[in-house]
UniProtKB/TrEMBL annotation:
Basic and acidic residues: bias regions: 126-139, 619-629
Region (Disordered): 113-143, 560-591, 605-655
Annotated coiled-coil segments of the chain: none
Segments forming domain CP-type G: 310-471
Name of the protein described by the UniProt record: Nuclear/nucleolar GTPase 2
Pfam families according to UniProt: MMR_HSR1 (PF01926), NGP1NT (PF08153)
Similarity annotation: Belongs to the TRAFAC class YlqF/YawG GTPase family. RsgA subfamily.
Gene Ontology molecular functions: GTP binding; hydrolase activity
């Protein structure tokens, strides 16, 4: 193959001429030349003695090198020392035998294949043709054509109706044949009326205790066992037919009233009002009209009662299998939500409620055990002290949750929701169970805004809920002392100090604030301002700041206060032995694993009442610590050892 290179004139003055290999003459050969027959690009650089033959590629600006030739000749420095010889007008001819002939042939064939087909007939192509010529800017692109074709989901058939190409995401279902068995068309289970009545009575007696759990609910005919709700029906047609009351043959001329005279009507209305108030409960007396009008409360005293907070509560209830109601051990009855308990009994019978007495280190041990005996009659109750480093009741709570997970063996995992009043320590309990800070906590109410999921183990999930307050008859002072309102938002905090002085013993206040005697709440605040240096300009005492200090100490447990449990002969002698009796009855019916879970829950609750509950030092006197029937509390080292063993068991179960 011969390649012709046109010489460059020497009088251009650009560089010096070099001897081209094999010609014996000097040329300025720095040339691009494209051969149209083979589409080769030839570049000769005689100054360094090279020749390159390349072919253009479909990519812009890229070349495919087919041939590169550099002969052996002296170095460039030696060539530069030779004298300059002017170039003539003749062309140089190079013979390159190393370039094969088939390169040209193959390149021509590939070029013919890549040429676009031209519409010879002159008719425009269809709009759904991918290869049509882009003559207009509004024409459809190839991607648009493919997308439009995707919308055609009809199955393609041949002339005989056989499907050649199925519809999008469809296939022919194989013909099925049902086995001609009598069981497909008969009753699956048959129960006698006497057996059904016996089972219904047993179910009602068992479910009266909150320590029992219904297993395999899907296999039980609960619709037959539960009594249907009685709905009031108006028997108008039974008393008087329609034709006798209306129409041409009517017999009634006066309307029939439920009361014959005015006195009977008043009596009937009074009875219905009493029934309504009894059904409504504690909130029934909110709208009593006694001639007086209460002052409009500030919005801060309605915290925890908004629709958003109640919406978060119902989300947690719907998502939970076990609901743990966290109570303040200083006032368990005051921080209970009876509305929530009634809701679970009426509408969520398959969910389980557990009471958790948090902040048990702020009350004497005998008071904690007394409340455990009282509340255990209604629901399983545990004492708890939330602390990441040194807690109490953690092992017992983990054991109870693990037993609930065993009872719900048909589920992949269970969810445990923590609900209660604001600032009772719901998030702190979750942090204690996880042994690290996973929930945001603060010694002020309203820190948790929305519900959140926390993973405890592979089968147990914890749900944190904002604090919820149900509407009741509590005064503003009661709301403040329960920890619902942030003290910093109070406009006049000194008006709540009188109730604090009435609830707390005088000896405890003297020991806490080093004030010997006072006349009233104002005198107590003045002495506290002088003792702590809370004075304004001119030596005036800052009563508001001193009152907020006392309320902060009240909410954080620095002032000793607690509500003693009711001490009666029946309640003092009562123990959760009934729960053990109930589980013994179920043991005969259920499997050994379920019976063991029932027995474990009852044992955990009963054994915690015999443990030594820790109490903060120097918070109560020795007489107050010994005021109950139990002995004085000691350190919780034994409890910590048991909790560590329980955590090791949990880790083994997870693994």
């Amino acid at each position: 193959m011969m390649i012709c290179l046109a010489p460059r004139q020497a009088n251009t003055g650009r560089g010096s001429g070099k001897r081209f290999p094999g010609t014996g003459k000097m040329y300025f050969l720095k040339i691009w030349k494209i051969d149209c027959s083979c589409h080769y690009v030839i570049k000769a650089r005689p100054n360094i003695g090279t020749l390159m033959v390349a072919r253009p590629t479909p990519f812009f600006g890229l070349l495919k090198i087919l041939f590169f030739w550099r002969p052996l000749f002296p170095s460039r420095s030696s060539l530069l020392q030779k004298p300059y010889l002017p170039a003539d007008d003749r062309s140089a001819v190079l013979i390159c035998p190393d370039l094969p002939f088939f390169f040209r042939r193959r390149n021509s064939e590939m070029a013919m294949k890549k040429e676009k087909k031209v519409n010879v007939s002159g008719k425009p192509k269809h709009s759904l043709d991918v290869n049509r010529k882009d003559g207009k800017s509004e024409a459809r692109s190839a991607a648009t054509v493919r997308r439009l074709k995707m919308y055609k989901t009809r199955p393609k058939r041949d002339s005989k109706g056989k499907i050649l190409k199925h519809e999008l995401q469809s296939k022919e279902l194989p013909s099925t044949r049902i086995q001609p068995d009598r069981r497909w068309f008969g009753n699956t289970r048959v129960v006698n009326q006497k057996e059904l009545e016996f089972f219904r009575e047993e179910l009602q007696s068992r479910m009266s205790s909150n320590y029992n759990v219904i297993l395999k609910e899907k296999k039980l005919p609960l619709s037959l066992l539960n009594d249907p709700k009685k709905q009031a029906r108006v028997h108008l047609l039974d008393r008087e037919p329609f034709t006798d009351a209306f129409g041409p043959k009517r017999k009634r001329k006066r309307p029939n009233l439920l009361a014959a005279d005015y006195e009977s009507l008043v009596k009937r209305a009074g009875g219905s009002q009493d029934a309504f108030e009894q059904k409504l409960g504690d909130s029934g007396g909110l709208n009593e009209d006694d001639g007086l009008r209460d002052l409009v409360r500030h919005t801060m005293f309605e915290k925890g009662q908004s629709k958003r907070i109640w919406g978060e509560l119902y989300k947690v209830i719907d998502s939970s299998d076990v609901v743990v109601q966290v109570l303040d051990a200083r006032d368990p009855q005051g921080t209970r939500c009876h509305h929530l308990e009634r809701h679970l009994k009426e509408h969520c019978t398959h969910k389980h409620m557990v009471f958790l007495l948090n902040k048990c280190d702020l009350v004497p041990a005998w008071a904690t055990k007394g409340w455990l005996r009282v509340l255990s009659k209604e629901y399983p109750t545990l004492a708890f002290h939330a602390s990441v480093n040194k807690s109490f009741g953690k092992g017992s709570l983990l054991s109870v949750l693990r037993q609930f997970a065993r009872l719900k063996s048909d589920k992949q995992a269970i969810s445990v929701g923590f609900v209660g009043y604001p600032n009772v320590g719901k998030s702190s309990v979750i942090n204690t169970l996880r042994t690290k800070n996973v929930c945001k906590v603060a010694p002020i109410p309203g820190e948790t805004k929305v519900w959140q999921y926390i993973t405890l183990t592979k089968r147990i999930f914890l749900i944190d809920c904002p604090g919820v307050v149900y509407q009741n008859k509590d005064s503003e002072t009661d709301i403040v002392l329960k920890g619902v309102v942030r003290v910093t938002n109070l406009e006049d905090a000194s008006e709540h100090i009188g109730e604090v002085l009435r609830r707390v013993k005088k000896e405890n206040l003297q020991r806490a604030y080093k004030i010997n005697d006072w006349e009233d709440d104002n005198d107590f605040l003045v002495q506290l301002c002088r003792a702590t240096g809370k004075l304004l300009r001119g030596g005036e005492p800052d009563l508001t700041t001193a009152a907020k200090m006392i309320l902060h100490d009240w909410q954080r447990g620095k002032i000793p206060f607690f509500v003693p449990p009711p001490q009666t002969e029946t309640e003092a002698s009562a123990e959760p032995s009934a729960a053990e009796n109930d589980t013994s009855v179920d043991r005969a019916d259920d499997s050994s694993q379920v019976a063991a879970a029932f027995q474990a829950i009852a044992n955990v609750i009963s054994s915690q009442q015999q443990k030594n509950v820790p109490v903060q030092r120097d918070l109560f006197t020795e007489e107050e610590l010994k005021g109950g029937p139990d002995s004085e509390p000691i350190s919780s080292e034994d409890e910590d050892a048991k909790e560590s063993s329980a955590e090791e068991e949990d880790e083994e179960d997870d693994n």
